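Quick question about two entries, pasted in order.
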Amino acid sequence: MQGVLLMNLGTPDAPDTASVRRYLREFLHDPRVVDLNPVGRALLVEGIILPTRPAKSAAAYQKIWTQEGSPLLVHSLALRDEVQKALGPRIRVELAMRYGKPAIADALESMRVAGVSHLVVAPLYPQYSSAATGSSVERVFELMSARDAMTPLSVLPAFPEDPGFIDAFAAVGAPVLERERPDHILFSFHGLPERQVRKSDHSGTHCLASASCCDSLGAANRDCYRAQCFATARALAKRLALADGSWTVTFQSRLGRTPWITPHTDVVLPQLAAQGKKRLAIFCPAFVADCLETLEEIGLRADEQFRAAGGEKVTLVPSLNSSAAWVQALVALLRPCMAR
């Protein structure tokens, strides 16, 4: 039997301070996420972030939590079930979160008990980053390598320009654009510290060296998260037939004082309002499921910020979640990774 392990980043068990603190502690102590020396990371996480951040994040989670639970988990479980239906009973599909539950170890054990002899690890991050993709894959290898008999596995690579992925986002977004008729469109991606982007530079001289460094993907920046985000935005804008100048790429969710990749979403929003833009639509193509960063940060906070700056409305374009087009695209991505 073959197995597919769908992986996303994670969510707290509940929208309360204790649960969020537990989740953030696991997340932020990952050396791929906060890539400082152990002492510096401990001082930052335990001394600065965890004393105040959990309560603020818990309040944000409370605004988007549903009766079924965390939106990210609810949508991810629905995706797992739809992918299982599409692949059929001969392939075992499990879901795991890099941090929190369902835990990777539990999913792998379920696969072992079921008799899975080849595993496809599928990080659901369209653009590669060490902090998300790298960490998720590394943890799977750590757990698998501790076994006496390690199950052969394949890893789904990043898919920033995959036609099925782009078509799926266009299928979700096109009706929203038709209905809302926005003045401008943002493609808002999760941010990363600049130092992490520079580490992916194969030439050592390309990334963030010029304003045009992400205009195309090449040998130097093929693994650059920022460049892959721009590639996704270009492909999606082309698929939606957006006019030049009608859309902008931005990056959200920065944390701390260290430089993060630009332009920042919360900086661009008031600039657009000052330019007379009244109605914005925002895609979040770094996320394949709606979560805190889409529903609260963009759907609520960005809307409030834009209105306060003189705009009228921000419309969040829903993520892919378990839409039929996304299930079809994901299955197509998975099949080449499976053992024959």
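Here is the second entry:
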Amino acid sequence: MQTVGLDISKDTIDTAILEKGTYKTAQFSNTQTGVKSMVQWFRECNIITPHICMEATGTYYELAADYLSDTHKISVVNPLKIKKYGEAVFSRTKTDKQDAKLIAEYCANLQPEEWIKPTKNQRRLQKLIALQNQLTTQSTACKNQIHASNDDFVKGIQKAVLQTLQQQIAVVKGEIKQLIMADEILSKKFSYLKTIDGIGETTAATILSFFCGRQFDNAKKYISFLGLSPSERSSGSSVRGQGRLSKYGHRKAKSAFYMAALVAYRDRMYPDFIARLESKNKAKKVIITALMRKLATISYHIYTNETTFERNRYR
């Protein structure tokens, strides 16, 4: 089996080919010319059908991923997974070349899922959602600063900044809605997702972006990607740690489903489900976490099966 690890930075792509336990390494520029040179190097090394793996490092990976996905099987992996894998195999050397080797080894041993190139509208939706999240984070920080400030001048400036941020958030939300409505597939999926109890338009658009460029074989893999899988700590009779959400996954996804779960819990949108957990004396935090997973599971089936939410089925 031939695997390739790419450690990508703003300017360079460190490349490691792993075949039969041996490595070949090279470095290329993070440009289209550089990626074409990399593909030529694969041919020279007789690497015909490699599985190529890279980390989701900001936007730096996008050029290589877009180009290579047209002719090769590629995977784009959460950097935390590579980091934890390195810790598990006691990799202590931290260089770009060594990181590329580690990614190639990770690819060979764990066989991550194939990355699907997003359409132009899907890619733009992801960027708009990221911008919306950034502005919302800044808005929340500004509100906290206003609350903590005791200087009228400082507070006045912060209120003006907050007003600008809120105006820009509204503009971005409008652009997101317009983009979705102009795309037949996105529009259809969006219309299904927003029928789910607890999922408003903003959350539905965010969930829609999670599916862009990704395929999940089942709900379990989708839940794992989001980072909503429970992580247990138990061993023998002495170790009984409290279960918690996995550290892996999508931080913004957890936030989106958390807010939706809070609304669902407050308004008792899933009364039988909540009552069953309450009858077992589960804490509010545990119930909300369970609601996050339930909403994520429902969103997977609604998106995949292209059907509207059936309240009697899921309550």
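Reply: The chain has 13 helices and seven strands. The CA atoms of residues 89 and 282 lie 37 Å apart. Hope that helps.
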